[in-house]
Design brief:
The protein is mainly β. Helices cover 7% and strands 45% of the residues. It is built from two helices and 18 strands. It is globular, with a radius of gyration of 18 Å. The two termini are 27 Å apart.
Length: 290
């Protein structure tokens, strides 16, 4: 039944990528939202959670948000997708702190890459506090094993990116320039987050990496890397990432209606970016699912 749903909801391009990945063990799922539906799954039971101020949109309007929709785009908005006709919109109304998309992978992966294209809002300004960007965890959120990325103000309206090894209750590390305003407003970036589980509860030999490539660039920049991470979930016997969320709580809400767009979400068990050069950094190792 899951495979029937998979064939029904994936576009031809996404399905081709999925089948190619299944052959070499690299790609678990690709969703470009071209079906206009978020019921897609794979044989392991990948599942998008409920839409929480998120929706599948075209350049003309909303087509899905916890069910089929037909809502015309309001005047003055720009919902042009990265590719194809659809993307996933994150809607932060002025003064409101939450827009979040959760997902479950269907099983635990001890070595996983999460990739997607995301567009900086055309009116982006980072508030005075932190905002969620991406979080991934094995069984229990905000414990050892959880890895969370957040944006922080850079003092000029833009944002630095930090990560936390152990969830939002752990200390922030490696504040790195991420979004500059006004130059990066409206730009698409491709991000790749990589997490490898620690080999034991006290080993601290896990991996946390984050890469970014702007549209039009030929190389990725390594934003974060920690090779001695404590990515062991001490609350469970099951290790490896099984779920996560994209975007989320903005501790200083935006002053204006602000919208992020996301396209071509994918999960991989090996590096999907090895064939491209890195800016100032060596290539990551080729990874295998364990």
């Amino acid at each position: 039944m899951a495979q029937l749903k998979q064939f029904k909801y994936f576009t031809a391009l996404a399905l081709a990528s999925l089948l190619a990945g299944a052959a070499n063990g690299e790609t678990l799922i690709v969703d470009s939202f071209e079906s206009g539906d978020m019921s897609a799954t794979n044989e392991d039971g990948f599942d998008w959670g409920r839409n929480n101020r998120t929706s599948v949109v075209t350049a003309e309007g909303v087509v899905y948000s916890n069910g089929d929709k037909d809502i015309a785009i309001p005047s003055g908005r720009d919902w042009g997708p990265k590719d194809g006709n659809h993307s996933l919109r994150f809607r932060y109304p002025a003064g409101e702190p939450m827009a979040e998309q959760r997902f479950k992978l269907g099983k635990h992966y001890k070595d996983v890459w999460v990739t997607y294209w995301i567009r900086v809002p055309i009116n982006f300004t980072q508030g005075s506090q932190n905002s969620k960007f991406l979080s991934l965890w094995p069984s229990t959120y905000d414990r050892a094993g959880t890895v969370t990325w957040q944006t922080r103000p850079n003092g000029s309206g833009g944002a630095n990116l930090v990560f936390q090894d152990g969830g939002v209750t752990s200390g922030e590390a490696d504040s790195t320039s991420f979004i500059t305003v006004p130059d990066d407003r409206g730009r698409w970036m491709h991000v790749a987050a990589h997490i490898k589980a620690s080999s034991g509860p006290t080993a601290k030999d896990g991996t946390i990496q984050f890469f970014r490539r702007w549209e039009g660039e030929s190389s990725y920049t390594k934003i974060h890397e920690k090779l001695n991470a404590d990515t062991w979930d001490d609350s469970s016997e099951m290790q490896g990432i099984s779920q996560g969320y994209i975007m989320g709580w903005a501790n200083d809400p935006y002053d204006q209606n602000t919208e992020w767009l996301l396209d071509e979400f994918a999960l991989h068990t090996q590096s999907p970016i090895d064939n491209l050069a890195f800016s100032n950094k060596p290539n990551p190792p080729v990874l295998t699912l364990k």
